[in-house]
Amino acid sequence: MERSMWFLDQKDMPTQWYNIQADLPEPLPPVLHPATGKPVTSQDLAPLFPMELIKQEVSTERWIDIPQEVQDVYRTWRPTVLYRARRLEKALDTPAKIFYKYEGTSQAGSHKPNTAVAQAYYNKKEGIKRITTETGAGQWGSALAMGCAFFGIECKVYMVRVSYDQKPYRRILMETWGAKCVPSPSPDTKVGRDMLAKWPDCPGSLGLAISEAVEDAVNRDDTHYSLGSVLNHVLLHQTIIGEETRKQMEMADAYPDIIVGCIGGGSNFAGQFLPWIRDKISGKKKDLRIICVEPESCPTVTKGLYAYDYGDVAGFTPLLKMYTLGHNFIPPPIHAGGLRYHGMAPIICHLHRLGFVEAQAVHQTAIFDAGIMFARTEGIISGPEPCHDLKVAIDEALKCKESGEAKTILIAHSGHGHFDLAAYDAYLSGKLVDLAYPEEEVRKAMVELPKVATE
Amino acid sequence: MERSMWFLDQKDMPTQWYNIQADLPEPLPPVLHPATGKPVTSQDLAPLFPMELIKQEVSTERWIDIPQEVQDVYRTWRPTVLYRARRLEKALDTPAKIFYKYEGTSQAGSHKPNTAVAQAYYNKKEGIKRITTETGAGQWGSALAMGCAFFGIECKVYMVRVSYDQKPYRRILMETWGAKCVPSPSPDTKVGRDMLAKWPDCPGSLGLAISEAVEDAVNRDDTHYSLGSVLNHVLLHQTIIGEETRKQMEMADAYPDIIVGCIGGGSNFAGQFLPWIRDKISGKKKDLRIICVEPESCPTVTKGLYAYDYGDVAGFTPLLKMYTLGHNFIPPPIHAGGLRYHGMAPIICHLHRLGFVEAQAVHQTAIFDAGIMFARTEGIISGPEPCHDLKVAIDEALKCKESGEAKTILIAHSGHGHFDLAAYDAYLSGKLVDLAYPEEEVRKAMVELPKVATE
């Protein structure tokens, strides 16, 4: 019997998140206050986040306990399955062993609930009654809607208007879980009203939606704001993915030579690779390759500048030291909406600077070639984001075919593409456009980096 | 630690299907030839189905080996998980224990691949190069598309035109797996061309799509036809669901008092309950209740006649002894497309006649009440079909609350509703219509039952 799936018993589900900050060879650069340029304090962040999350943001404890209430909710879908893509291996005729850890069986269809549930819990514990957030394509908004439903918290999602109109299914998902979802710009905030007065048909942007969600949160004592990627505490919550995978790879009697995943804000891939990178940092597995994959049209790590920049377009957020294409850069409308971000998780950028992770940019048509091949061999319809992983995994497996090496490749598969089928349709009908690197746009946006970036 | 999921190791996946025909107290009535009224022979069916499936249709062997090649494909998603709905139990404040076996993690999102993969395999083995089928909402067509992709068989799906236009995502799914999907009526068959000549804008019907698929298959030597429910061999392939569940319930130290599931053609629910009903037939668990749930607007078992009838509108198929609302009956357009069928699996009807299963009809608004409650407690967005199960399971759990009994309820949950969110939207926005029992329509259709029905 050839095994293709490894289940981890619920009693063996990890009960602690892994905090890479304990094992970094150099500490992360501090986060700076957008007005003063000085490192932010807990008090600066308190109107937005519960104190437990602010503590996690800067903690250097190696292991952080997952609260029992969060574990109980995790156990409605976790541990997720580790698969071996045997049928893909055969189709490629490669000696490589291809594993993938699949987060698509969460109720929201991705890794996002891992942090949504934790954030809802900590907010609930601090007496918060309501959480606001922004969402683009709706992956994050729907996960937070579910997290809030589970802890009896009101949830308000500002959804970029163009997505709100184009992707009604994600809005319906949020509403099914009880959240309120409005198109952004909305008349519910000053920044929204100002924009609507100037431009009634404004299609919105993630940056504007963030501004609306932040304004809403700071203006109400019962309300906090929540972010679905980039920040340290978000990556921390996602490490349950990699910690589970370590146990499952041991069950499979395997250890990865290459770990591959896509990065938008970076939380899914970091959730997988951070628990492994400690073996590379410690020297136990020096030759482990960790490949971050990003779109050719939004190549933050491969073409961005390592500098302090805002997380949002409006410049409301603290300054993060990261690779950036400039906070004013609006990425082209690729189908992988989750990868359309000008910045990147500071932890990933730091590890890249230190030489522990590498990065590759890939083209939109190539990732759908890979996605279709995966669908026709393994069955799973992948989101456009994890199709990026598949492209590079297949490339590496074909290199193995050439060299005869039986390498072990681990894919950090973030979820299904059930709400992204229009992209597959465009591909199958020959209408998919391959969007190039918008060099001129990036150059312009780079000029507008905040002053502190030059220090 | 409170466990909410039971995984079954792949080495413990059942390797045989269970055939209820070995344990029926009385044999099934024979299937009759539509022209002669005599029992059909293997040769009558050979232009449509491979001989192995024809044999399974009438076999009385208790256990039938699952071919190794089919097992290998099953292991790309099986065993599926048994869940306990602890958060739903708490919300209902019931002493009942509610379990659900969930087929929504298959790549196609439902139980349908269990038979699609098997049927594709047996056809491949017999040298068949191409399979035709019909599909309404697209659940079955997409599962067969995947099954055919896995065995390198061409797949042509005739999709009811109104669904083809309204549900492009299901069509895209089929195309992603490499199938050809055309709206029915189509110019590809005589029956389709005739209809288009008469009525160019004909919205199509399942009955017409079956006729097209059958005509296509009988006219080409390299082509067979495939059906996704009703027939004995289809129910047989689905018994892997119940056989897995038996092992998982044992792991959970539980045995069901009530098993509940929805029935359209009946294959998912039969796949779950047939492996349990042998304990009821043998007297080992006499008080086991098996509740079939159907829509109020298409109440085949609760209001139909037990008679010989055609499987399709055009009267091309053999005659099956079953509960029927008349093969000319067109069920109202409820969202649970998978339950809109005038007939029912003969095995289920037979067991109902013998008193081993009961049936209930429920209203469309009530099933969405249940679906929303399930989504907000357990997270999963259920298809409209399994929302029928949830409604009755919740009713039974509330009866337990009243009586104080800690009964064990097992739900046969057939899959997710990711492509049915328009129905949730209608419900949430107060636009969902509750469709009543169309008594007059059924009365008319009943008059047109084939003559043999009166014997």
UniProtKB/TrEMBL annotation, chains A, B:
<feature type="modified residue" description="N6-(pyridoxal phosphate)lysine">
    <location>
        <position position="112"/>
    </location>
</feature>
<dbReference type="GO" id="GO:0004834">
    <property type="term" value="F:tryptophan synthase activity"/>
</dbReference>
<dbReference type="GO" id="GO:0005737">
    <property type="term" value="C:cytoplasm"/>
</dbReference>
<keyword id="KW-0456">Lyase</keyword>
<comment type="pathway">
    <text>Amino-acid biosynthesis; L-tryptophan biosynthesis; L-tryptophan from chorismate: step 5/5.</text>
</comment>
<comment type="function">
    <text>The beta subunit is responsible for the synthesis of L-tryptophan from indole and L-serine.</text>
</comment>
<keyword id="KW-0057">Aromatic amino acid biosynthesis</keyword>
<dbReference type="InterPro" id="IPR036052">
    <property type="entry name" value="TrpB-like_PALP_sf"/>
</dbReference>
<feature type="domain" description="Tryptophan synthase beta chain-like PALP">
    <location>
        <begin position="76"/>
        <end position="415"/>
    </location>
</feature>
<comment type="subunit">
    <text>Tetramer of two alpha and two beta chains.</text>
</comment>
<keyword id="KW-0028">Amino-acid biosynthesis</keyword>
<dbReference type="GO" id="GO:0030170">
    <property type="term" value="F:pyridoxal phosphate binding"/>
</dbReference>
<dbReference type="InterPro" id="IPR023026">
    <property type="entry name" value="Trp_synth_beta/beta-like"/>
</dbReference>
<dbReference type="InterPro" id="IPR001926">
    <property type="entry name" value="TrpB-like_PALP"/>
</dbReference>
<dbReference type="Pfam" id="PF00291">
    <property type="entry name" value="PALP"/>
</dbReference>
<protein>
    <recommendedName>
        <fullName>Tryptophan synthase beta chain</fullName>
        <ecNumber>4.2.1.20</ecNumber>
    </recommendedName>
</protein>
<dbReference type="GO" id="GO:0052684">
    <property type="term" value="F:L-serine hydro-lyase (adding indole, L-tryptophan-forming) activity"/>
</dbReference>
<keyword id="KW-0663">Pyridoxal phosphate</keyword>
<dbReference type="InterPro" id="IPR006316">
    <property type="entry name" value="Trp_synth_b-like"/>
</dbReference>
<dbReference type="InterPro" id="IPR006654">
    <property type="entry name" value="Trp_synth_beta"/>
</dbReference>
<comment type="similarity">
    <text>Belongs to the TrpB family.</text>
</comment>
<keyword id="KW-0822">Tryptophan biosynthesis</keyword>
